User: Fold this.
Amino acid sequence: MKILSDIAALLTGMWITWKHMFRRPVTIQYPEEKRQPYPRYRARIVLTRDPDGGERCVACQLCSAACPVDCISMQPTEDTDGRRSAEWFRINFARCIFCGLCAEACPTLAIQMTPDFEICTRDIMDLVYEKEDLLIDGCGKSSHYNFYRHAGIGVTQPRGNGAEELPPVDVRGLLP
Amino acid sequence: MMYDTIDIALLLAKIALVFFVILTLAAYLVFAERKVLAWIQDRKGPNRVGPFGLLQPLADLIKLLTKEDFRPIGADKWLFYLAPAMAAIPAIMIFAVIPFGAPLTLFGHTVLLQVSDLNVGLLLFMALSSIAVYGVALGGWASNSKYALLGSIRGLAQLISYELSMGLSLVPVVMLARSFRLSDIVNAQSGCWFIVYQPLAFVIFLISIAAECKRIPFELPEAEGELVAGFHTEYSGMRFGLFFVGEYINIIVLGGLAATFFLGGWHGPFLPPVVWFSAKVLAFAFLFIWMRGTLPRLRYDQLMHFGWKILTPLALVNIVVTGWWLVLRG
Ligand code: SF4
Ligand code: SF4
Assistant:
């Protein structure tokens, strides 16, 4: 009988919702009860330093090119030793969608996402972060990487001194 | 019958009491609904305003009162402003005939715990419940909006599908109690509740009142998934609130009627009659909320099919069988 199976189906549904009434709610009571996000959670962005304390960012503009909402801007500059850095570096968090594409694009691992999501304020202009607000003293998630050890040939160390870099070949010595 | 001052004072006190209790209860039913639905969905529900969120209805009221009272261009002004009241007032008027407790004796007067012991109480209920649909129909029509109009058309289609079976399911009750007077119906159940004799009529009545108060398996006139909010799409502020409160008053009133007709009204062992009556009403309210948290919405052709081809014939058969049974029993 179809009607009997229909009634049984209705009662099954009622029984399931009845059971759920006595379950513990999954709600997290936010301001009182805070959830610790995972380390790779994508929230407030920082600019990190390399293990030797130098700024990692080389102002290559790749993050700002990758950003789908164009909220990163910077002015590149070059030191006397040929090392590049950003004169100013600005992220507009009011616009950022925390997609993490900038962090993925960065060749020097300078720009990184942190799990700190509580950055809302009353004044929207407070969400425009300058370089001083973004730059931190630590290395962030990659504690060993130093871009200039692997690349930037001849900028911070003489040729052939980088990690995994062979001494320069004496071109003439290879002559038969 | 002669009335003296005390009689009139008692009557006015009863009316004030009923108004106060019903309106408060309706506000807290909204709160209860939000809580129970939240529990069903593994959430916590409103818990910020006051202890356990108990002041939430007050906050809702303030919000509704301070909102803009909006009227769409081209809306029929008078009907648009009157419709919410037309939906809410009949609902609360029905409560006048429901006996909510055993008669008391105060100042040497017998006080019926019922605003008016009308000898055609049941018919008054049928009439008022049909009038209530005018609020829905005219509100939707006056809004000058397609969603509202569709909602009110559905409201009418729904009315003609359940009203008949609701009336027919009450005929056996009248046959058993031999009266249209609600206090007689309650007294006829002092021994045994009518649900025992009339389980089928009870089920039909329950389904019909679910349709009458536009609750979820039958909330076609609102159908927020398809019609935005149906007949009250264009209403804002306290006018929307009035529709809303009318619906919850309807739940209380229809729960009270179901208790009166089938569950013995205020009769019950040990506890005082008023407590029994309230418990039964709240049980029905809980059942409706629980159904809302569980069941999907029917299409309106399904509802009409169900009302006309299943409920109405069943109710008719039930009347005939009850008649035979009454005749054979003598
Ligand atoms: S997280 Fe996405 S939106 Fe935000 S700055 Fe980076 S690339 Fe732009
Ligand atoms: S943060 Fe990274 S990607 Fe952006 S400019 Fe600096 S080095 Fe380039």
